[in-house]
Amino acid sequence: MATKSRKSPTARSRHYDLILLGATGFVGQLTASALAEAAPAGFRIALAGRNQVKLDVVAQRCAERGANVDTMIVDVERPSTVDAMAASAKVVVTTVGPYTHYGMEVVRACAQAGTDYADLTGEPLFVRESILNFAETARRTGARIVHSSGFDSVPSDLLVHLLHAQARRDDAGELTETTMVVRRVRGGFSGGTAASGLAHGRAMAADRVALRNALDPYTHSDRRTEEPALGRQNDGRLVALRHVDEGLRGWAGGFFMGPHNSRVVRRSNTLTDWSYGRRFKYCEVMTVPVGPFSLIPALIMAGGLSMMPLATLVKFVPEWFTDALLPKSGSGPSVKSRAKGHFTFETYTRTTRGVRYRATFAMAGDPGYAATAVIFSQAGLALALDTDRLSPFGGVLTPAVAMGDALIPRLRAVGARVEVECLSESPPVRADNADQREGAG
User: Fold this and answer.
1) What are 325-341's pLDDT values in tens digits?
2) What does the pLDDT read at residue 433?
3) N or C: which end of the chain has fewer CB within 10 A?
């Protein structure tokens, strides 16, 4: 588990409260706008990137929203500029991907400087390397390194965090079989997402050990030998929804981000000394419309994820072909398309005492872009402002462990529906509540 560490006076008195690296990219611009609208008066922001002209354009848009921001030239291929950035901020948030190529230098600088860090990565191997290389440094300096702080993997991680907290309040036991069900999702994807996927596939193709690590359900664990032996945990399985919860019907197949999100959630369990439970099993699935042929698309989704090792075949695909076929990096859905987007996730669990719960995370806006910009900006603000509600531990953490109790109310305040409910007719009664009722009688 991460060890307790105090922020140094220097870290608390940095020139900037938050620096956004990658502010001129597609998601970076959306995040800059979200920060400008949400940051309180006097909050000190700097926009960082390689192109001063583009930075000035984004800064002007932020000024039109009432924010006063500075700009800073930072090139991740020039370590001195990255070190200077990390030393001048309480928090650095970065949208510069693929993170496998451009993220590790920023993690290093923040871990060494004791600076909190957040990103949007969906690349499991990058997170693994970050843990192996910089978790101990971050524990020592008190830096909270928080990967996957957007659509990947905040909803997944926070829903299990909520379920665990409610089960604990109800004295309902530990979590066991837990499944996140994608009920509704509408949205596009950008060149940045495509580039990250290609980078991850090429990383697996380049190294047989990397492929084995990518397929390990506990690849984000730095306590691998202590993890519970729960047998196969298949991210791409076909699921009859009645087996998830007795109130559900139809079929579901593996969710395409499930292989990454599930590893983030399992790391949350590990970081808290398996507080969710030693029998906690987690997977993510996506529903298909109920009908006589609904089994077919569910089978296709499940089959696609079960063949994830075939992603290594990307090494045989020429780069000119993928460049022509996929969206360009820095591009993304239109304003109109982003406004039409939305998503609803429901996570179901059953505890060791047989109590059933459902947690829901629903949000308007294209999940990968409009919603991610809001989630990511609120994560950055939570790290910078809500210090009394953050984890006191440094290290390579997860959204739930680092800032779950701070981020949930922030997301509710900006329109997200984040809630948990008991589905059992008679939830267990805590002993102290029972004693109170007996005394009242």
Assistant:
1) 555 666 677 788 888 89
2) 47
3) C
Distances (CA, A) of 232 to 115, 187, 210, 215, 218: 37, 31, 19, 11, 11
Tell me the two tokens of residue 401. Answer: 């462990």
According to the 3-state scheme, what is the secondary structure of 258-307?
HHHHHHHHHHHHHHCCCCCCCCCEEEEEEECCCCCCCHHHHHHHHHHHHC
Q: Which of the pair, 8 or 93, is modelled with greater confidence?
A: 93
Domain limits at 379? 16-150+369-414
**Tokens 């664990």, residue?**
221
Q: Pull the structure tokens for residue 201.
A: 């596939």
Do residues 37 and 139 share a domain?
yes
DSSP state of 167: H
309/211 Cα distance (integer angstroms): 7
Query: In sequence order, what are the beta bridge partners of 409?
Result: none
Query: Which of 321, 223, 239 is closest to 282 using CA atoms?
Result: 239
- In tens, the pLDDT along 148-198 reads 999 999 999 999 999 999 999 999 999 999 999 999 988 865 566 666 666
Predicted structure pTM score = 0.88
- N- to C-terminal Cα separation, the chain: 45
Same domain, residue pair 146 and 177: no
362 lies in some domain: yes
